[in-house]
Fold this sequence. Notes:
Blueprint: E1 3-7, H1 11-23, E2 27-31, H2 34-43, E3 48-52, H3 60-63, E4 73-77, H4 82-90, E5 95-98, H5 103-116, E6 123-126, E7 129-132, E8 137-140, E9 143-144, H6 149-160, E10 166-167, H7 168-176, H8 185-198, E11 204-207, E12 211-214
Parallel strand pairs: 1-2, 1-3, 3-4, 4-5
Antiparallel strand pairs: 6-7, 7-8, 8-9, 10-12, 11-12
Helix pairs in contact: 6-7, 6-8
Amino acid sequence: MAHIxxxxxxxxxxxxxxxxxxxxxxTYEQVFDGIDANRSIKEKRFDLIVMxxxxxxxxxxxxxxxxxNNTPVIFLTxxxxxxxxxxxxxxxxxxxxLKPFETIELLARIEAVLRRTQRSIQVFALDGAVVNLNSxxxxxxxxxxxxxxxxxxxxxxxxxxxxxxxxxxKLLAMAWDYEYCGETRTVDVHIQxxxxxxxxxxxxxxxxxxxxxxxxxx
Length: 218
């Protein structure tokens, strides 16, 4: 999951992008002019910026100079002009999409840029808890939460299979490896600990006669 800034002055397009980002599990912030975009870029951290070139107050070519070097940018434009495309890439854009566009194309390009910049699915956030899947650090409101190795392994499996019901046997095999000969009750104990530590009592659902599912809004 990535946190994405949408900079687009046409409300219908901005809302369409936001809706589709939500459907694939990303979070977003919407702004509609160059002034608000500049403020968000300076004050907040984003994994990716999707930005129109022609904007009120400040255009995208000006705004990109304010973007941190490690934050990728995809430009949107209705102008069919090779010069603009070249200029965008020279200024540091990672991709360039012409309007009108198919949302499936936009989502594919977003995933491609995130993979290329190694920022896709590195951080998972839910209800105040943040899980860094690279450093394996879990925090709530900036405070690190101590998890055992097995608790973390179980958590990561639930995250990578969010909204999918997993049996106790499957969780046991995946988190403790296939040679483990323990009982599935071990999974229940660790699930209860995760629920309590992360305040996810209503997120880690018990699936009757099967196992558990991490329920995430889509």
